[in-house]
């Protein structure tokens, strides 16, 4: 019987640790962490109470280069990797998940859509703006179209000349809407074809008939704007078609799979921020019965368990990142399962850890003077947007069934 492993195929090169960052990623991590603590942290509570993103912070995010991480330098972007975007999202969430999701949606959904599906003319027109000073929104969800994203009712009618389209309908739960000037809007040009009629368009703020309506008042990530958008015969030039007619559903699926890794990173960053905020308090500030409360064995076990779960969630996130960057786990499979698992588990861990952190801190965790209660409120959205936890479980189960069913 031949040996299972031939010596000539044996490699002396050890696999790279999953948390190993490239030099560029490490430098970005340090830069974003410093910016978060020095610039964002002093304004976190104020923005949360006002339910509004500080305009100065948005401007500085562009100045720091984190709004165009994957956009090429020829368009004014940073020309970095997807992994770099995830590192930045995670670091921002350790201080403020609201700022983190603004950066996440702008990079992983909007910028990626233009880079991947935009024509040369659209890239030349919009990528420099998106990289240097203009926020973008991804407009898919509607009042009756949430988890069933392709049941959308917004319609687009092509003019007889073919030179434009008129969009009519309503979008809901649109992140970044109040800050945005560029919107990727999904509308159906052939409702009789179902989801195969869904097409993506570029709409700009100020186009006649387009309005940013109600701004939602939310439980968490309150500084992040979430708005209703209305379209009343909004005329969009044909050159603002993103990709091809009827392929919008394909684009949305692909983009959301990538975006889920970004949301998972937001959740791991949030969990780590909540954990750090609490342990600094229980190990350095509050004493009971003559010693710091973090020194009691019961507390230490909870703290250790929470940090272990955070690192497990981060391992899923960075595994998904590297699988995505490598072009998929296996040919044709992509990174769908890895992204779904990362998003599912990271959102679960974020809720558990941020909730426990409040209890560890006692009264100081419950009041709005600190950040503990905010981290918990912010964590709840992780199980809802960019695919609910049940949708992630369904996705994972389908892929596992495909793998094991005879």
From TrEMBL:
Pathway field: Amino-acid degradation; L-isoleucine degradation; Lipid metabolism; mitochondrial fatty acid beta-oxidation
Alphabetized GO MF terms: flavin adenine dinucleotide binding; short-chain 2-methyl fatty acyl-CoA dehydrogenase activity
Source species, domain of life: Eukaryota
GO BP term (any one): carboxylic acid catabolic process
Cofactor(s) it depends on: FAD
Keyword Phosphoprotein in record: yes
EC number: 1.3.8.5
Enzyme class: oxidoreductase
Keywords associated with the record: Acetylation, FAD, Fatty acid metabolism, Flavoprotein, Lipid metabolism, Mitochondrion, Oxidoreductase, Phosphoprotein, Transit peptide
Domain (Acyl-CoA dehydrogenase/oxidase C-terminal): residue spans on this chain: 246-398
Family matches, as InterPro entries: Acyl-CoA_DH_CS (IPR006089), Acyl-CoA_Oxase/DH_mid-dom (IPR006091), Acyl-CoA_Oxase/DH_mid-dom_sf (IPR046373), AcylCo_DH-like_C (IPR036250), AcylCo_DH/oxidase_C (IPR009075), AcylCoA_DH/ox_N (IPR013786), AcylCoA_DH/ox_N_sf (IPR037069), AcylCoA_DH/oxidase_NM_dom_sf (IPR009100)
Family from the record: Belongs to the acyl-CoA dehydrogenase family.
Quaternary organization: Homotetramer.
Protein's recorded name: Short/branched chain specific acyl-CoA dehydrogenase, mitochondrial
Organism of this sequence: Morchella conica CCBAS932
């Amino acid at each position: 019987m031949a040996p299972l492993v031939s010596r000539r195929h044996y490699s002396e090169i050890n696999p790279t640790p999953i948390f190993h960052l490239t030099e560029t990623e490490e430098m970005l991590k340090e830069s974003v962490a410093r910016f978060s603590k020095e610039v964002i942290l002093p304004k976190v509570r104020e923005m949360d109470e006002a339910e509004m993103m500080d305009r100065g912070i948005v401007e500085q995010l562009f100045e720091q280069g984190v709004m165009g991480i994957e956009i090429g330098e020829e368009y004014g972007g940073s020309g970095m990797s997807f992994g770099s975007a995830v590192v930045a999202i995670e670091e921002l969430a350790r201080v403020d998940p609201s700022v983190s999701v603004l950066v996440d949606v702008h990079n992983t959904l909007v910028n990626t859509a233009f880079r991947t599906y935009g024509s040369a003319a659209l890239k030349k027109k919009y990528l420099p703006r998106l990289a240097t000073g203009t926020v973008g929104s991804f407009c898919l969800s509607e009042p009756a179209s949430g988890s069933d994203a392709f049941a959308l009712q917004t319609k687009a009618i092509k003019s007889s000349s073919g030179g434009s389209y008129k969009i009519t309908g309503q979008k809901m739960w649109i992140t970044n809407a109040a800050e945005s000037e560029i919107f990727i809007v999904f509308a159906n040009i052939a409702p009789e074809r179902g989801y195969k009629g869904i097409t993506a368009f570029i709409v700009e703020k100020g186009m006649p008939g387009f309005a940013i309506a109600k701004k939602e008042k939310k439980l968490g990530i309150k500084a992040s704007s979430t708005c209703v958008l209305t379209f009343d015969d909004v005329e969009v030039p044909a050159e603002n078609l993103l990709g091809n007619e009827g392929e919008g559903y394909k684009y949305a699926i692909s983009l959301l799979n990538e975006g889920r890794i970004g949301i998972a990173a937001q959740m791991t960053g949030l969990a780590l921020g909540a954990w750090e905020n609490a342990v600094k308090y229980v190990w350095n500030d509050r004493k009971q019965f003559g010693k710091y409360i973090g020194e009691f064995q019961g507390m230490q076990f909870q703290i250790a368990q929470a940090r272990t779960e955070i690192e497990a969630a981060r391992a899923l996130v960075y595994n998904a990142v590297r699988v995505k960057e490598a072009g998929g786990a296996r040919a044709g499979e992509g990174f769908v399962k890895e992204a779904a698992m990362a998003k599912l588990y990271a959102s679960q861990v974020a809720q558990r850890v941020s909730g426990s952190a409040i209890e560890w801190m006692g009264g100081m965790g419950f009041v709005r003077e600190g950040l503990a209660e905010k981290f918990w409120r912010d964590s709840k959205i992780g199980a809802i947007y960019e695919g609910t936890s049940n949708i992630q479980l369904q996705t994972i189960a389908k892929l596992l069934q495909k793998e094991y069913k005879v």
